[in-house]
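Entry 14. Two folds queued back to back today. First construct below, sequence then structure tokens.
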Amino acid sequence: MFNLITLKVLSLFSWIWAFEVVFNMLKEFFYIEVVWYSEIDKNAIKIYEKNFPWVPNLWDVKKINTSKLKDFDILVWWSPCQDFSISWKRKWLKWERWSLFFEFLRILKDKKPKFFIFENVKWLISQNKWKDFQIILNELENAWYRVKYKVLNSKDFWLPQNRERVFIIGQRKDLWTFDLEIPTTNWSNNVILKDVIDNKFDEKYVKDIEIIKKLYSWKREDQRCEHEDKICHCLMNSWTWKWIVLNKDKEFVRRFNARKLNLEELNDVKARQLTPQEYERIQWFPTWFTSWVSEPQRYKQIGNSISINVLYEICKSLFTYIKDNKKLYTRNNETNLERYKKGFNAKKEKYKNKVLSKLEEGAFSEETNELINKEYNNFLETI
């Protein structure tokens, strides 16, 4: 049965593993054992291995042999977002990269963990007029999972960053009713850039007038300058896209971003790029977390990661939900995992449907009920 002492986790497309940081912050709920992670980016692997050297890497997700994996409780997954990002062409079904979703689905179907957590850019929902997102939901439903999803913004979780991401949380259908509430905020936001940026910084981050004029000519919204009395736009994976104007008011910065200034007005402007440590702070990582790689890679690794505060609240909510629902393990129509596996894996569709319908009806034999009760009593002794 479900072990409240240890939850085992498999991480796909782990990057620098925001999940691992959060799990270490939630030890009062469970002991979380990350049994494997999967990542192929050499710099992300270097950061991961420096911070979590005891976790083995499965490398390329397409080459994972699920028959050799032991069972685990939670599958966490977030994959390359370019296919859904507003900055890219957003052609999911035509992009080879998004065959990775079906690799995730393959592992989910083969191993059938109790829960999964999935994160991506918010454009995932609106891609192709909701059609692609509906495909994802249908595939997860067919994999026998109940799902909940919500778009969350980092600025609502005490971080000075406008970063919207969609989170999907799934629970296997043979468990109890899925009434998890995904949090929409934890604090009213009163944090601005000034609260997290450094007053002292290396002069190498201050740029000359020619670079400022080039910055002024850029058209993309996410490449605009920031003012220290506001929150910043979503962090990107390059330092060239995040600058702070040092000696001008917010109205000047607004006109700068809208390209409504004369070039003469730029002559006395000072601007600097955010430092890697500030990138980490804005995402709520420790300021040494990515220090094992080059500066350009630090920006990339943090800019592509998940905001820690947001993920913390999601995992905290899920763990609270699991703990509060431990009494529901006595419900016979929701606990027969072996019968569920047998039904799901049956080669004959007719037999599979018959078994799954029995699961829904709670039609178990007396012997099965006795086994469930015995297993539940053993479970109670562990908590």
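Second construct, same run, same settings:
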Amino acid sequence: MSIADYLRDRLSAYMIYLATLVTALIFMSAFHISRECIIIVYVILLLGGAVSELWVFFRKKSFYDKLTYCLENLDKKYLLAEMIEAPDFFDGKILYDVLCQSDKAMCEHIAEYRRENLEFREYIEMWVHEVKLPVASLQLMCHNDGSTRYSEQLKRIDDYIENVLYYARSRNAEKDYIIKNASLKRIFGETAMKNRTEIQERNISLSAEGLDVEVMTDAKWLAFIFGQLMGNSIKYDANEIKVYAEDFNDRTVLHFRDNGIGILESDLPYIFEKSFTGENGRTHTKSTGMGLYIVKMLCTKLGHSVQADSVQGEYTDISIVFGKNDLHNMHQ
């Protein structure tokens, strides 16, 4: 709040004040009041008015400057009323009360939204667990009957159901994971076993190197990430999948590489965006564009970084970087 803006806003009041002074001068002249007395009266009035205006200006300036500063630096701007104190002038109190009421209404709205979101998430998780039972039963029936006709489609249904579950949980993943030392070899082995039937049916060559390392992560979430990456390799016609890790002093880099159809260079910057399917998703196979988006989201929440490198028609290499700290190095 600048003094120029304040004076500009008060200009109409000053014009009325000036007109009042001129009127008073006319009346004092009509009653033949001495010039010295008139000058003394005007000096007193002008000094009193100036001091009064300065006092009002600095009271308001202190409040509005703090209000503006908090507004500019707050991430959640609806909490503005929590960061300021009630002012001691009337119109400021009105504004403060309005902000408090608005803040209260917004907090109640957010609390209601969170309750609804939690209820919806709990319903989705319950539905997923319920629907996975008949799917698992159908898979077992196909296995017992020796029928492979429906197994692949049931596997795809199961994968999509699991995607729904992990996407629902990923919105609040920090409440559902435990970061501790986990073996890359064990997690990848479990993922390979889960997909072994499809890997064998498609004659895919699967190799792993340098996975005898431990990283700080959540094994359950990382297993899901591995499953997504392996599912993408299978979906996009890879006949060779190679997984290997590079262990450095400050990080471990896991590479998930396949020789599938690859990714267009123009699509690479966007493959981790929500619902992005790219050229491959439109022409080669139906894709939701959610798999890599969830992978990226989970990696970010777990403190890992994920990148992609690819040449269309040659390979795709997804790399996940696991950071290390002093505590991790002590365990090594």
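Quick look at the second one. The chain has two domains: 3-106, 177-331. The CA atoms of residues 140 and 151 lie 9 Å apart.
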